[in-house]
Amino acid sequence: MPGSQHRRGFHTARARRRSCAVALAAATALVASACSTGGGTSGPDTGAGDTSPVTITFWHGFSSPHEIASVGAVLALFHKKYPYITVKAVPAETDDKVNQAIRGGTAPDVDASFNAANVGGWCSSGAFLDLTADIQADHVDLGQIPKAVQSYTAFGGKRCTMPWLADTFGLYYNKKLFAAAGITAPPKTMSELAADARKLTVLNPDGSIKVAGFMPYLGAYEMLTEHLVTSWGGSWLKADGSSNVGTDPAFAAAMTWQKSLVDWFGAAKLAKFKAGMPDEFSAQNSFETGNLAMMVDGEWRTAFIKNDKSTVDYGTAPMPVADTMPQLYGSGYVGGNVIGIPRGSKHPDAAWKLVKFLTTDTEAVTTLADAIGNVPTTLPALDSPSLTLAQDPKFATFLDVFKNPHTSTTPASADGGAYLTNYGLFANKWQSGQIPDLQAGLKAVDRQNDAALKLGQ
Amino acid sequence: MSTLTATGTRSAGAPDAAPAPALRARHRRNRLRVLLFLAPGLVGFAVFLVYPLVMTVWLSFTNSNMISPAQFVGLRNYRFMLDSDPQIWQAVRNTGWLVVIMVPAQVLFALGVAMVTARLKAGAGLFRTLFYLPALAPPVAATVAFVCMFNPSSGPVNQLLGLVGIHGPLWFDSPSWSKPALTLLALWGSGTVMVIFLAALLDVPAEQYEAAELDGANPWQRFRYVTLPAISPVVLFATVTGVIAGLQYFTQAMVAAQVANGNIQAAPGYPNGSTMTFPEELYTSGFNQFHAGYACALAVVLFLVSMAFTLVLLRRASGFNPQETQETPL
Questions:
Q1: Which of A26, A43, A143, A377 has its CA 20 to 30 A from that of A371?
Q2: Among residues A322, A219, A323, which one has the least CA distance to residue A267?
Q3: Boundary (domain end) residue, out of B50, B77, B104
């Protein structure tokens, strides 16, 4: 009887060792499977000619109702072209979450991110699949994507993401408040910006800020260092990838300009005003309600103002530039949304079809760009007559910034843009007056950035 | 009986006579049975504690990013921690502040509230419930609500302070006030510790208070010589668990910084790194910057510090707990 034989055998040393070995193997398999990130492909998939029905998961960061609806409309176009591929879109996902999912082996088939700073980490670690083979197999012409945009979507010779619309930054100004202050045109230099900011600022009887002419406090909405230093032509990293903030005079100049305006307002007053600024992506946005006369923001604000039914009378212009660098006027910061296939994608072939469609199909690109008010990332889409955004002079500012040869971005780094985190902490202390020696502080940031970059190598 | 016979055949001088095969088999079966019953616990212990612990120590000597294969890098992560990490010492200072200020404040506040509610003659149940309720609020929701209440521009706290002529601080938007604001949040949510103290206080024999009163002890002496010795194990428990929680303080600091800053992508520890705790630095390194090996090194240090704190507290506590000194070891 097998059962009794098994029980008898259970007591022998040999059987015990075997049982231990089996248990160990099972435990190892269990642990291994728990730790695996599922790098390969699995399950049914749609190869080039395979039209078996498949459902893929797509995570993206859009969260506003009109943005989610717009993504849905473009996915409907995709489903029309590929009826056997159903896309399950999950909105409002963050990079933190997708990183955890990749590590846990539960990554979506396709992921889109607002934060191109993570591309370096994703490419170098293999978190996102290298798309080069698919691009070559499908003869996708990368020449249709501007060079600057190509640069922030690849790292270390690996193209692990594609650009999925871009964000360019410029100056929004309130025409009504400008007229009331006797200002006839938007500022073109940083000196003019500071002077206009002072004229436009209105204080409450208790001395607190009622209307800020401009918000120089870093961290308020899109007033970030990376959006500021482009006005001085700042370059974050040297050609060898090491930190450049202590060497490039643009950073010290930008910080000095920013601090002088902060000091004019008073850091404590600005901190209090900032604390009272409602959510950036709500209809109560301070610019939309008239509490902020000028602000740096992305092109998407034009769509938000429309969708929020804000009555603000506004105009747009390129960001003012350093007084000594007039040639930079018209340029700005470009930061792109990126899209790729995370490691562990269960249907990478179908996922690639979606990535290719969303990033290179002119109708898809212009439809989404028009719907959510983002800048298209392919030249055919930029020049497409169906791009209605180009007819809006307020939006055209951002298309011009995008095309400007001086427009720059924050380069990808293998540590997920740790240099920006380090710089952000430094800048916060600087604007609070905690950094006595600016140049020494910038040099210290260089050392920190370089040490952090070496840590992961 | 065969066992006795078998034992009797051994030489008289043998100190530990080997049992007969049947007895050995029974012992073996017993051991296996015990092992079988213990197996779920042992497997859980091995998989969820020993394995992660060993892996964490191993990964702390690698350049792991938890995605591509890790390579051994020796002590590089530990050297980076001591020499180059720009945030680490501020994170250590912040966590140290929370352990030294917030934890004792929370223990004392919970003890004070428990003593007051223990003496209430009327409405005791209502007040105990009211003081305990905040502990049921999820930490994220509670923190978001707290940051909104303490908003220096539109929050009700500063508006109320303004009514009595006090110019309220910037709270979560001030590097000087952010940790005190987090401490207020911790005091508000200390209901669980309060309930444990309350149970201990209600357990102190009333006769001891009566005897102390007859001996002329004043309220402070009654607390010092009757209450405190009786509840000292609970004080020790609250302190040890509080210190460990303080060392691991993460959620509230992170959420408060993000909500106050209004930008989840901005630099952590807003304002000016004042809420950047040691675990937050660990999280940022491991999950935002792909430095999982370094994060493991930070975790190892955190583990060792937690263990050292606990051992010191336990050792010191054994001296002041009178009940322990009277006990005879088994």
A1: A143
A2: A219
A3: B77
The reply to whether B175 and B33 lie within a common domain is no
- Same domain assignment for residues B73 and B91: no
Query: How many structural domains compose chain B?
Result: 2
Compute the count of residue pairs across chains A and B with CB atoms less than 8 Å apart. 135
- How far, in Å, CA of A167 to CA of B271, rounded? 27
Domain membership of residue B6 (yes or no) is no
Same domain for B174 and B236, yes or no, is: yes
Higher pLDDT, A31 or A325: A325
More confident residue, A363 or B86: A363
B26 within domain boundaries: yes
Which residue do the tokens 């709500």 mark?
A282
Show residues of chain A in contact with B47, CB under 8 Å.
27, 30-31
How far apart are the C-alpha atoms of A163 and A151, rounded to whole Å? 10
If you write DSSP's letter for every residue of B137-203 in order, what string do you get?
S-HHHHHHHHHHHT-TTT-HHHHHHHHTT-----GGGSTTTHHHHHHHHHHHT-HHHHHHHHHHHHT
pLDDT in tens, A40-77: 333 344 455 678 899 999 999 998 888 899 999 999 99
**Residue B61 and residue B168 in one domain:** no
The conformation of residue B284, written as its DSSP 8-state character, comes to I
Instruction: Give dist(CA B92, CA B280) in Å, integer.
Output: 11
SS3 A338: strand
A425 to B266: CB separation less than 8 angstroms, yes or no = no
B64 and B118, same domain (yes or no):
no
Q: Is A453 on the interface with B (CB under 8 A)?
A: no
Distance from CA of A336 to the nearest CA of B (A): 15
Nearest neighbour of A343 by CB, restricted to B67, B267, B289 = B67
- Residue spans of beta strands (DSSP E) within A299-361: 314-317, 334-340
Is residue B139 located within the same domain as residue B183? yes
In a domain, B278, yes or no: yes
Which ipTM score applies to this complex? 0.71
Q: Tokens 């992560």 sit at which residue?
A: B77
Q: Which domains does chain A have, with CATH numbers?
A: 54-167+334-403 (3.40.190.10), 170-333+412-455 (3.40.190.10)
H or E, element range at A113: strand A110-113
Cβ contacts of B156 within 8 Å, gap of 6 or more: B149
Which residue range(s) make up the domain with B69? 18-77
Read off the pLDDT of residues A128-163 as tens digits, 9 standing for 90 and up. 999 999 999 999 999 998 877 888 899 988 999 999
Q: How far is CA A218 from the centre of its chain?
A: 18
Q: What is the DSSP string of A252-276?
A: HHHHHHHHHHHHHH-HHHHHHHHHT
- Percent helix, strand, coil in chain A, to 5, is 50, 15, 35
Task: Provide the whole-model pTM.
Answer: 0.78
Residues B117 and B198 reside in one and the same domain: yes
**Which residues touch B157 (CB under 8 Å, ≥6 apart)?**
B149, B150, B168, B171
What pLDDT does residue A363 have? 95
Residue of A119, A126, A78, A63 lying closest to A95 (CA atoms): A119
Answer whether residue B7 is part of any domain.
Answer: no
Of the pLDDT bands very low, low, confident and very high (cuts 50, 70, 90), residue B11 is: very low
> What CATH number corresponds to the domain at position B235?
1.10.3720.10
User: Does B189 lie in the same domain as B62?
Assistant: no
CA B87 – CA B81 distance, rounded (Å): 9
The reply to whether residue B272 touches residue A455, judged by beta carbons under 8 angstroms, is: no
